[in-house]
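HUMAN: Please help interpret these tokens:
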Amino acid sequence: MKKTKVAIIGPGNIGTDLMYKIKKSKCLELTAMIGVDESAGIKRARDMGVVTSTDGIRFVESNPNVAEIFFDATTATAHRELHAPVLERLNKIAIDLTPAAVGKIVSPMVNIEEALNYKNVNLITCGGQVSTPIVYAVSQVVPVEYAELVTTVSSKSVGPGTRKNIDEFTKTTAHALRLLGGAKRSRVLTLINPAVPEIAMRNAIYCVPDGSFELDEVIHSVKNMVSKIQEYVPGYTLTLSPKLENGVITTIISVTGAGDFLPSYAGNLDIETSSAVRIAELFVENQRREVKNNG
């Protein structure tokens, strides 16, 4: 079938990695890379034969038919104040990779069916994409009174946009642990490690259960969730299977990137871009299913 046109706003490292992943998609066609200056990402996209623009969101307003789905890989402020209003007015699907949390927050393996009813969806954060499904998997077995994420990432994988948005990153992730994960209370700590050689993303997820349960059931639920996520993020690895100690369930997840554009240690960025592409594909699959059912 004909591929669905998609465009990227934000030609930085995340936007560029998105470009390489979209190129491999069976149902998505990248029709534009949009920025605000003549950056390395814009040049790289142009060299790959992609239409480029440095006019920012004005390009979308002038060329509304360039795509049906737009990935926003800029900043929370830019999405909230500039891009989201325009894309909403043009009735476009916006997949937001910033921590703006304007639209419906989504984790593909937790609430995608609900999220497909919205035009603007937010990918939480990289930490949110890693941890929310695990907390959700635990909460399917036993209520979670408190969830905590301690995520460690390589300094080289954290760009200026993420550093600038670190407070929103933390708040959005913690909110997702409650709203999607099911925890009553939550906390998020982010450690940026300057070690050389660079370390892969590592996430310690702590859940305080509220009630009795069988640990084997928690382990089964978590492993089942991990296997589902590995279908679109192969480097998503269960480093420590759920372990109960002093009344706390501890799970550790490591994420290694696919190396499409970003280095393999940048698993924190890879899970974000991989999740974004998968969500776009699910939007397309849902649209085709609706057309078939109505036809």
